[in-house]
Amino acid sequence: xxxxxxxxxxxxxxxxxxxxxxxxxxxxxxxxxxxxxxxxxxxxxxxxxxxxxxxxxxxxxxxxxxxxxxxxxxxxxxxxxxxxxxxxxxxxxxxxxxxxxxxxxxxxxxxxxxxxxxxxxxxxxxxxxxxxxxxxxxxxxxxxxxxxxxxxxxxxxxxxxxxxxxxxxxxxxxxxxxxxxxxxxxxxxxxxxxxxxxxxxxxxxxxxxxxxxxxxxxxxxxxxxxxxxxxxxxxxxxxxxxxxxxxxxxxxxxxxxxxxxxxxxxxxxxxxxxxxxxxxxxxxxxxxxxxxxxxxxxxxxxxxxxxxxxxxxxxxxxxxxxxxxxxxxxxxxxxxxxxxxxxxxxxxxxxxxxxxxxxxxxxxxxxxxxxxxxxxxxxxxxxxxxxxxx
Length: 390
Ligand SMILES: Nc1ccn([C@@H]2O[C@H](COP(=O)(O)OP(=O)(O)OP(=O)(O)O)[C@@H](O)[C@H]2O)c(=O)n1
Ligand SMILES: C[C@](O)(CO)[C@H](O)COP(=O)(O)O
What we know:
This protein is an alpha/beta fold.
């Protein structure tokens, strides 16, 4: 496994108390179906999976039932009532966390459903040097100043950036800045609020997937998500006497087993990495660092199911997997049906979407000498079709 440092603890506020007037319709946009589930559910699931605690959802007073239905089954979400403007709603969210005093907080628009884990990592890393950090993207078009439909000037795009959310802050600094805000009009975002209190804001790399759903056509637009994506995973574990041998979620009788921090199920690790790779969510070590004692001896099925949850949160369902195990011993053939059934069960797939193959390396190399087992997997994921919100 590749190791990665665990994320520092953080709280999150998802602001979702807007009316969605520019999108229109009877139901506010954050509760409407987008890629198979309510818009707000996508980013709440992503933050929850990243470990946000507490996680506050800021909802309009008349939309609490919508919100509870949209986020049903996600444990630990604190629902609070928002204000008349986005800035008011953020302030309500911060005040709700004042007693908990988290070290840092991510403030995120429910209107930006596609939230990559890598952006969260970049923002929290930047907070070690600055009290605020925001994801930004460059401006690629030239810019004009509009004066009643006539161009009256230009702006220098080289120094301008498009600003997204989530925006990350040391909690005490952003709460104090919101409380001290004296602007006549609302700030455009929370980074501007922090700057008004002389807090420095780091610019981290944003992501096109974080596009804000603002207009009705954004619900239909393909955004940047392709219909299919592919990921591959590769893993190796050492064979040692006295260890259990787990392959594809099945315990296999053998005179040696695979050694590792978890149950060392090399097959499930390769599939997990392939799923994470398909949706650009890092690797298994990013989510389950071997340095973390809670994963000692852990069953690897939970790693795979976590990766599938991240794929779902990004709007993707698994199409099929193809796994190759590379070893001299044990012979995989007799165990293939049980492994195929278990991998299909763990992934919520039919067995014909799960292929398990095996090969030797003709007694060459470490697999040939029986020192270890290698596994490689390819996964195809497909954009989930837009069905009714469940
Ligand atoms: N009083 C408000 C207004 C906005 N928001 C939230 O702030 C985010 C960014 O706002 P925007 O995308 O502009 O949403 P709306 O304000 O709902 O849109 P509109 O201006 O079209 O009504 C959204 O997640 C929105 O729900 C909020 O929590 N409270
Ligand atoms: C906070 C924000 O998403 C940063 O780009 C943006 O300012 C929200 O603006 P809106 O007018 O409330 O959509």
